[in-house]
Amino acid sequence: MPQALLPLIPAGATHINDRISVVRENGQWTYFYGVDPIFSHPEEDHQTFRMFTAQLVCQGACQQVDILRSFGVCTNSVRRSVKKYRQEGVAGFYRPRKVRGPTVLTDPVVVQAQELLSGGCTRREVVDQLGVRYDTLRKAINQGRLHEATQSTAPARSEAEIVSGNDATISHNDPSRAASDKSERSVGDASAEMGVACTRPEERVLAAMGMLPGAPTRFENCRDVSFGGVLCALPAFEANGLFEHLQNSFPSLGGYYTTLQVMTLLASMALCRIKTVEQLQYEAPGELGKLMGLDRIPEVRCLRNKLSQLSADDAPQAWAGLLSAQWLEADPERAGTLYVDGHVRLYHGKQTELPRRYVSRQRLCLRGTTDYWVNDALGLPFFCVERPIDHGMLEALKSDIVPRLLQEVPHQPSEEELAADPYRCRFVIIFDREGYSPAFFKEMWQTHRIACITYHKYPKGAWPEEEFSGTQVTLPRGESVSLKLAERGSWIGDKKHGLWVREVRKLTASGHQTSLISSAYGQLALEDAAGIFSRWSQENFFRYMMEHYAIDLLSEYQTEEIPGTNRPLVNPRWRDLDGRFRSLKGRLQRRQAEFAAHTLHPKTDEEAVPKWERRKSELVEAIEQLEHELEEVKRQRKETPHHLEWDELPMEDKFKRLAPSRKRLMDTVKLIAYRAETAITKIVREVLAREEDARSLVRDLFRSEADLSPDTQAGVLRVAVHPMANPRSNRAIDHLLGVLNATELTYPGTTLKLVYTLVGRRPAD
Predict the structure, then answer these.
(1) Span 78-109, pLDDT tens digits
(2) What is the rounded CA–CA span in Å between residue 594 and residue 589?
(3) CA-CA distance, 576 to 636, in Å (whole number)?
(4) What's the CA gap between 513 and 111, in Å, rounded?
(5) 380 CB contacts (<8 Å, ≥6 apart)?
(6) pLDDT tens digits for 650-660?
């Protein structure tokens, strides 16, 4: 085994790879092979730098990507240097440069340059024809001495060229073309005649006339593109189904923007924390457009119109169903244990009077609508069920959730397998105390062989502490904790609707015993069942989605009639009478208690006796009045029907629901975005230990800038992400980009393979 090289090179050396390093000191670049210096040149000698780095690549000492990461040079520069070395050798770098004409923009040169620009030539083409420096031409344009032709004044292209994406006039897919910076793009976007950043007018006109089925995705050479890091989420988008089932689920949009482009924009908005469509008006449309291969993203009004088209005929519901089945099938092990919990979306508007619901996070009864979410043990969502008329979790489970799970949960045991093992279940559902019902437990097991787990709502006396033993429990995220647990068989419910269940209790340090009941008789071990005591994953999901994805925000303000329901509703008249009855009863009890106190503890002071007698008389009168009112309200409540059908409700008591279709579309896209973020976070966690640090870094990545370099000849789109704040974060991102490159994803709608790099990345010392 060869002996490892000792790190004897000077401190501060940049490691090109595990063999080659370089040190910048006293105006010199010195290259080392292991510990031995092999070459040196002045730092201002760029020709020698290009020659030697090309030599290293051609001799196999390193790769082109190593030079890019170590020195932060342009990809095209390295490629040209390698090509020159292979064709011309060392001498090719030191031949005198050909005199190409004037290097200063004299008046005749300005005239020639303006003619070329007005004719539709690009800056690079003008530079090549006139032999001037590119920076000289750029400065002249910025100073106003020269003017670039707008799209409307450039030579017109044929309809066939536009529709096919064959854009020779303004094509930016040439890797040799100089990349634009933000300043250049801002000037061009502001001067566009059809509106800000509308630099592809021919295509827009054809799309408006119905002659173009959507703008072709075409990328440009760009530096420092805002939110460029969000392109790192594309492989995760693809893995979670963002680009699937679109053609079959949604109607054709028509016009300039395609369904694929709109969906990509919505998912990218979610990851970039652009929480509403209205917030897009505060972002540069041209910058976001560059990420989609467009000139700009749609304006707010246009995007809302596209969302309305996509939400027609409840298409989002069908799409969400296909995706949830796909997610369940992709992870059958976790799909076998599902968490169900309700979440109240508050509504403070005045479009409709939604009923009040108890909101546990605020401990108030507030207006809103209840959504029931189905997640796995890690909090990853599968689907959501909206209940505008909420009869409680049990009704939602029976009517909406369980029938859907019976169809979508993969790898359920067959009837023969269930008959052979009386303790085997199809799957397990877990919920909080709201779903406690022995009758429901029994129905789920006997009818469907579904196991239920929840907290015991009415636990009996404490168990002896001797029964509890320390148990090592592995929680869903891999953490190992020690819990004091005990288990018994328990009977819950009455003789008719009751059943035997497993009861697991956890003993806390304070001596409190938390009880869990389960009808998963043979599936969960004691340790597995105990892990359910930590059901914060779903609560954390709600909290994170509200904070970062604005899951509670409205996507539209329209309302619609609630579809007919065959379940009776509580009569509003009866509810008012019941509330009045309870209020009167409380007041009566308080007066009776005060009267009893006066009777049992009379004042002995003679001067206080008249006051005492007067108060006692007032209490007697008040009690008699309250008793009379209470009896009258009790009689009215008895004569009033407790429940009514929806159609029987008075018009003033009926309410409309918030139109759900667009909300379903946005929620589904946000679920995909969250699942994508979680998948990327999981990769980053291979380098970073804490999940909070990993998620924070991933959020920073999505909002970071990136350089885009399309190369249609090579069939690649290079995304160079700008470095993070510290070396530790850069190592994590570099690891992530390596995993993403292994997917070899092609950008949707193109033939360009995505290649991710980190600008100026220096490998770990």
Answers:
(1) 888 888 888 888 888 887 765 444 456 777 78
(2) 9
(3) 11
(4) 89
(5) 327, 334, 541, 674, 675, 678
(6) 654 555 555 56
